Amino acid sequence: MHDKTLTELKAGLQAGDFSSRELTEHFLERIKRHDGELNSFITVTEEQALRQADAADQAIAAGDHRLLTGLPIAHKDIFCTEGVRTSCGSRMLDNFIAPYTATAVEKMAAEGAVMLGKTNMDEFAMGSSNETSFYGPVKNPWDTERVPGGSSGGAAAGLAARLAPGATGTDTGGSIRQPAALNGVTGLKPTYGRVSRWGMIAFASSLDQAGPLGLSAADCALMLQAMAGHDEKDSTCLNEPVDDYLGALDQSVDGLKIGVPEEFFPDNLDGAIADNAREAMRELEKQGAKLVKLSLPSIKLSVPAYYVIAPAEASSNLSRFDGVRFGYRCEDPKDLEDLYKRSRSEGFGAEVKRRILVGTYALSAGYYDAYYKRAQKVRRLIRDDFSRAFKDVDVIMGPTSPETAFKLGAKADDPVNMYMADVFTIAVNLAGLPALSMPSGFINGLPAGTQVIGNYFQEGRILNVAHRYQMATDWHQQAPGGFA
Amino acid sequence: MSHSGNWEVVIGLEVHVQLATQSKIFSGTSTQTGDDPNRHASLIDLGMPGTLPVVNREAIRNAIRFGLAVNADIARRSVFERKNYFYPDLPKGYQTTQLAEPIVGAGEVEIQLESGDKKLVRIHHAHLEEDAGKSLHEDFHGQTGIDLNRAGTPLIEIVSEPDMSGAEEAVAFARKLHSIVTSLGICDGDMSQGNMRFDVNISVRRPGEPLGTRTETKNLNSFRFMEKAIALEVARQIDVLEDGGEIVQETRLYNGETNTARSMRTKEDANDYRYFPCPDLLPVMVSEEDIQTLRDELPELPDARKARYIEQYQLSAYDADLLSGSIATARYFETAAEHGGDAKLAANWVMGELAAKLNAEDKDIADSPVSAEHLGELIQRLKDGTISSKIAKQVFEACWNGDGSPDRIIEAQGLKQMSDSGELEKIVDQVIADSPAQVEDYRNSDDAKRKKKIGFFVGQVMKATQGKANPQQVNQLLQQKL
For residue B174, how many C-alpha atoms fall within 13 Å in the half-sphere facing its CB? Predict the structure, then answer.
């Protein structure tokens, strides 16, 4: 059952091949059996899952089939879920039972989804290796000595090990796409404003975007169909009609123009990574797509711009964690200042503190113009680069990550090296564009991913491109051994 | 201490106006006050993780209404920013406010001075922001309680240019703003509840010299305190300077009960607020049509009302300013004038007897025990000769003390003027008969002296009638008989 895609499981539920309860119990059982090794879940919501599964079975019996009726989904522990601990991977929120549910989760529940639990992540989504979680690192199921990527590392690893057939994640600088690539699954970051941020604990508000991770592009389309849409509780959530993503999947790619930016294939890029992405594009070429070389000159500035803007916003967003109203509070504070200092220094981990410091510095009087304002200018340049490019091409492609999964602890003392690896994913967040990562083969037994970037609200198009690729390849069907 | 030579005083105001919207600026929670702590603290007001602000359009409309009322530029695009600092009653760790791109740009208001002069005070800008909650330091056994009912209440902060040269101008400006926002209906103007708060920036200098170092005085919750606080601070600064000292840039807290002020914090303690545009909110876009609609809907403003009073009621500019100055006074005056059928009499009563009484008992005109309708009734009785102006004061007093409507009081206490001329004639005859010496004196005087001397007889008649006689009638009768 667990080797099936969400789309196949949906058909099975509808045909009555199995019940949602059987399906849910099966995945709960798998989590119990394998997650001790992977650590991909922070919280498993067994009771609630079975309750939802029974409700789904009743709905199915009554002929009420919705987009996700009876399908188990794992939610990243960044989404508030009423009555369930929502930790954001931090000691700060280890005791936080959310009193309300995030819109993205609520919309999926309204379409009949069953919540399996909350997945592990880098603390406050700050990290690319899932090593900053208060709950310990997640292991990559392809090689448990390696990282799963981050920050949605629990979602991607759990999905790859078939502990859940579908998952949600969030992507601020690559946090869906990079772990998807490192675990051999498909992950989509939608256009900024396509999915509501209400109830999603903010890291960098102008960059954060929720999206699905699945075993195929079709599965991502199914989940996005449920997640996307306007929400009046989020002023930045756009009131644009939601396209028929599922309906667009099968479109031909004959004549599709794929932009290939030279900046995605720099001279110092690992040759195996470059070859892997080129091979993926060749597959689409076989189906009639045309490759168009282009340049996005400003994206070489995206890493420094991102590491000003994201920490700046984070330094402000994380101010509410002060030990006063919720979350971690230090023991016996002497006075107000002591309460603030110790609650925050004991409640936050090292990477979060580093980014709060960087962000506070970047916004300080005398530095604001040199850092924050200049970074915003770079952001506009990057957006302009993409806008120009999309006048000539339909999608843009390249490798998702310059490397495959690295060893746990390998970059522990080198945050800048870690940051530099976000080079291919970050520009997309700065521009607010939709992009996905799809499995495109293996390098030394480790999955590699290829990124497909679309113009604003072209989620349907990039899902279609990935789906056509997956029709012709079976990389996305490969599962790691050892999790039978 | 007496001060030597000339000092110039330079004053600028920062005014916080709490907007009278039904709900908070970003959360939709009720702005109701007076309930138990944290009754009106929603997920958003608590700054819960993952919650997001959505701007209240009515708060934006109110800010625009204010801008239009002071002839200011309305920004077609304005931006909310975050002002970052830690405080327990600031739930998110930042206040959402406006800085670089406020919704209301430069404007001006005209103030009327007692000398009859007018002066323009420029407004630098006005911006929208959210209020913080309250820290409660009592009854928590050494701990502090936090009440977030007020957190997120919409405010506009109005920042003036340093155009005022003393307490009179500052108070006139403050009163004018009060009048404008209450006339617009965007604020209830209740200063005792902090719904309008004034911070006064004060500096002094010798004529012709550059601006001196300024201090900011906070916590001025009445116009009277503002006046006193300014006098206090100006005297302090001059003392310091004349003693060869320097003014420290600081924030001072005024205590109205003791008429003292103390330093709250100096510039060295100032936070670096790390302002940046709030990424959770889109820029506020305002269209020409929005502005035109709001302009068309503007109610009568104090300046227009004042002009109308001068024109319609033939009041002096100063009287018209006083009566039109507060919407509550204006409403009272107009109702009394309408019911009484005499605007001049109504104006005199509102500014005279009523104002004195309100002042003596420290009451707002809106809470006057004598309603505008009752004052109107009183004026009617004065006009139709039912009572004399002396008796009118007596009736007013009784009405103030809750004895009922003027008509009831006149009836119940038998205060009607004597209209029976036969009875009055008898009394007049009696007074003349009782005062032969005065009669003799009167008859031997010339016309000019007689005018004065008749007063004695009028007084005697009024005494005998307990004031109920019509003085004109008494005069006539006396002149005939003498």
Answer: 28
